[in-house]
Design goal:
This protein has 14 helices and 24 strands. The chain is an alpha/beta fold.
Length: 492
């Protein structure tokens, strides 16, 4: 594993195949949540930088330096890119840890590995997705083809910087689009490094550009840009709504949003492996310090197992005590910044004030480190009206609910403005299917939670967003369908 001292951090933007300062010359401090130290200066991009990046992407698309290449050639370059990402795994993992606070063991085994797998999978799909011929009869030949949209704007969050970028870059680039990526100002470094590696792999200059900056200064100009054909966003529901408005206010660009969640994890009394359910409830909730949109933050337990489950869950909290995320044994690191720390602590205080019972945690941890750490926290006695039951906390705070039967469980689970993920634990296959069908969410895990594969779509119902990342369905977001109708005349 690379050491922090040997890591070369470059916060400059990446436009038309090269690093560059913001046109204004402005920078902002990149503060590590590990210890509160400034680790580098990052280009503070704004509208002129977005204009430059979009212009570079448009030139690259119009002259077809990428879109015009044969799918097999695009595949070759993307596979070389994935190989380079894998070769720089230690560097990228440590960069992600310093920038965002997640344990380095997971930054490498989950984030880097998933990024490599995603780029490879979409690379392989380049020459394996076929177009169609419509069943028109002998008088015509109707071709249905997928064509790249053009310039795709991508805005990703700070919690999984590489993975969230890869889920969009993979299908967007495989389709032949050019991309302008605006990473979160809280964790911008790996996105910039990915762009460098892409050009090193052979991606033509201008096809993939990265402009760091804040949402108002860089994200808004990208979403409003009249020469951007599509905006793909992952982040909060509040900002996602603004993205859709800006898409409509500008050129009616395609807008795809993967947003928040308040996912229910339902454990029935006939759960086939109670300890496995306990372990999954803890690991899925506290992974990435609870900063996951699909975190199972509402734990619904049936009467017969409630007390036993809660007792076992409390015992697991000791396995997720915050520690320096640079250490290989650490399982829970730091929250991304002081703002998020104060937000999470505010929700914990709200839970106490509204009458929830604190079963464990609830305190800021490692206060002398300079970083931003919170203990894994569990509340019982949570009622549906409480803030901690309804709002996305985005931290290691779990609420436990009690239910009596399947109908009540489904009603409680669906009582949310979100609809991203859910878990169902039962030995009854009929109950599993019935409950899964009634849950208004994008993904239902049965007797598991957070198991995943690039071959299945990811996204949500209701205010958890529009569209799907991952799988071949993601190509629908970055391509247009064109019909070419050829009238035929009889020659025989």
């Amino acid at each position: 594993m690379s050491s922090s001292a040997s890591l070369q951090l470059d916060g400059r933007a990446f436009i038309h195949g090269q690093r560059c300062a913001a046109l204004s010359g402005q920078t902002f401090d990149d503060i590590s949540p590990v210890d509160g130290r400034i680790i580098c200066q990052v280009a503070d991009g704004d509208a002129p930088d977005i204009d430059a990046a979009v212009a570079a992407a448009r030139r690259a698309f119009n002259d077809r330096r990428w879109a015009g290449q044969a799918p097999a050639q695009r595949k070759k370059i993307m596979l070389q890119w994935a190989d380079l990402i894998a070769a720089h795994a230690d560097e990228l993992a440590l960069m992600e840890t310093l920038d965002m606070g997640k344990p380095v063991r997971y930054a490498k085994s989950v984030d880097v590995r998933s990024t490599v797998n995603c780029i490879r999978w979409y690379a392989e799909a380049c020459d394996k997705v076929y177009d169609e011929i419509a069943p028109t009869g002998d008088a015509a030949l109707a071709l249905i083809t997928r064509e790249a949209l053009g310039v795709v704007g991508v805005i990703v969050p700070w919690n999984y910087p590489m993975i969230m970028a890869a889920w969009k870059l993979g299908p967007a680039l495989a389709s032949g689009n050019s991309v302008v990526l605006k990473p979160s100002e809280k964790s911008p470094l790996t996105a910039l490094r990915l762009a460098e590696l892409a050009v090193q792999a052979g991606l033509p200059e201008g096809v993939f550009n990265v402009v760091p900056g804040t949402g108002p200064k860089a994200g808004t100009p990208l979403a409003l840009h009249m020469d951007v054909d599509c905006i793909a966003f992952t982040g909060s529901t509040r900002v996602g709504k603004q993205i859709h408005v800006m898409a409509g206010q500008s050129n009616l660009k395609r807008a795809w949003t993967e947003l928040g969640g308040k996912s229910p994890n339902i454990v029935f009394a006939d759960c086939p492996d109670l300890q496995a359910a306990v372990d999954a409830a803890a690991s899925a909730m506290f992974f990435n310090q609870g900063q996951s949109c699909n975190a199972p933050s509402r734990l619904l337990l049936q009467d017969g197992i409630y007390d036993q489950f809660v007792e076992r869950l409390q015992q697991r909290l000791q396995d997720y005590q915050p520690a320096d995320p640079r250490l290989p044994e650490t399982t829970m690191g730091a929250l991304v910044d002081n703002i998020q720390l104060q937000t999470v602590m505010g929700y914990i205080q709200s839970g106490l004030e509204q009458g929830a019972q604190l079963l464990g945690g609830g305190q800021q941890a490692l206060q002398n480190s300079g970083g931003f750490y919170v203990e894994p926290t569990v509340f019982a006695g949570v009622s549906p009206s409480m803030r901690i039951a309804r709002e996305e906390i985005f931290g290691p705070v779990l609420g436990v609910f009690r239910f009596t039967d399947a109908q009540q469980a489904v009603s409680m689970a669906n009582d949310s403005s979100y609809g991203l993920n859910a878990g169902v634990w039962t030995a009854d296959i009929n109950k599993a299917h019935t409950v899964a069908r009634m849950l208004r969410v994008g993904t239902v895990h049965v007797n598991s939670y957070d198991e995943d594969d690039i071959t299945v779509p990811f996204g949500g119902f209701k205010q958890s967003g529009i569209g799907r990342d991952k799988s071949l369905h993601a190509f629908d977001k970055y391509t247009e369908l064109k019909t070419t109708w050829i009238k035929l005349r009889t020659v025989l």
